[in-house]
Specification:
The protein is an alpha+beta fold. It contains eight helices and 14 strands. The structure holds one DNA strand of 15 nucleotides.
Length: about 280
DNA sequence: ATGGTTGTGCGACAA
């Protein structure tokens, strides 16, 4: 018997969705209009019930809603900005209670939420990347990112942790040592600096969030969901980071049936630099 | 390698 591979990575298609499970996929698509055909492929390959997107880079008037409905996702809730940001929840099951929140005092499109059948509250979030310099005084984008993370702790700290709640998205933080290819070399690189990782831990703790990926695949197993475009051979250099996250509240912790990181999607022609992450959740 | 690549939209930015 070969050793069991503990990685959540899948090269091609994810396992068939089991009866009685809801499949939610999150993907930083880096332009929904450029990658509409890859979105269709993701829908087909993953058999997702719900797809959450970040960095759609499309205002609502140009969002490809009809094309997405045509391949099976008529229930949609999206919010976009011109050229940047943009988030979407696309579903083949009905959505209720559509909402969005503004974070860190900005009007940008970084969050949408909706309620799924069974009363599961789903949040799709895109945390600011934070620029290049990890100094809040010298770099306003980093200051904005820290403020955004502080706001998350404040908001979730005041929310009812007994709710059935899922949060997915590109959180732009690789919180643990084995969430990056080199902990030492990235301690000073935005996404893995102590001001970010300590805030990340605080947000998880203040709401009793469960990091579903790490619940199933604990440290020190390295897990990455993003590999930079700026590498000749992303797979050979493997300088990845885990920036895309799946969180659930405690009432859903025992319902997590699977997590899959669709690593093969990094090789899709003209693909995103992020790969989709799949959550299988038992419906009861 | 104070590099490198990609997307938006047509010049810088953001990532």
């Amino acid at each position: 018997m070969p050793a069991k591979d503990p990685l959540p990575y899948v090269a091609a298609r994810v396992p068939a969705r089991a009866a009685g499970t809801l499949r939610i996929v999150t993907w930083n698509i880096n332009s929904v209009r450029l990658r509409i055909d890859l979105l269709k492929k993701l829908a087909k390959d993953s058999d997702a019930d719900v797809i959450c997107l970040q960095e759609t880079k499309a205002t609502n008037d140009v969002f490809p809603a009809q094309a997405i409905e045509a391949f099976g996702y008529p229930h949609q809730h999206y919010q976009g900005d011109k050229g940047y940001n943009g988030v979407a929840i696309l579903s083949r099951v009905p959505l209720a209670d559509h909402g969005r929140r503004l974070w860190a005092g900005r009007e940008d499109s970084r969050h949408v939420e909706a309620t799924l059948p069974g009363g599961i509250e789903l949040h799709c979030l895109y945390v600011p990347a934070g620029g290049d310099v990890p100094d809040a005084k010298a770099n306003p984008k980093f200051a904005h990112k820290l403020e955004f993370l502080d706001h998350m702790a404040e908001y979730w700290g005041g929310a009812d942790a007994r709710a059935k709640r899922v949060l997915v998205g590109d959180l732009n933080v690789a919180p643990f040592e084995t969430d990056v290819w080199s902990h030492k070399q990235l301690l000073d690189v935005v996404s893995h600096t102590p001001p970010e990782t300590t805030r990340f831990a605080k947000i998880l703790a203040c709401h009793g969030w469960i990091d579903a990926t790490r619940q199933l695949y604990p440290e020190p197993q390295p897990i990455y969901t993003w590999w930079s475009y700026r590498n000749r051979d992303w797979r050979a250099s493997d300088r990845g980071r885990r920036l895309d996250h799946v969180w659930v509240t405690k009432p859903l912790g025992s319902r997590v049936r699977g997590i899959y990181v669709m690593k093969g999607a990094r090789d899709w022609p003209q693909g995103s630099d992020h790969v989709p992450v799949v959550l299988d959740l038992a419906t009861a």
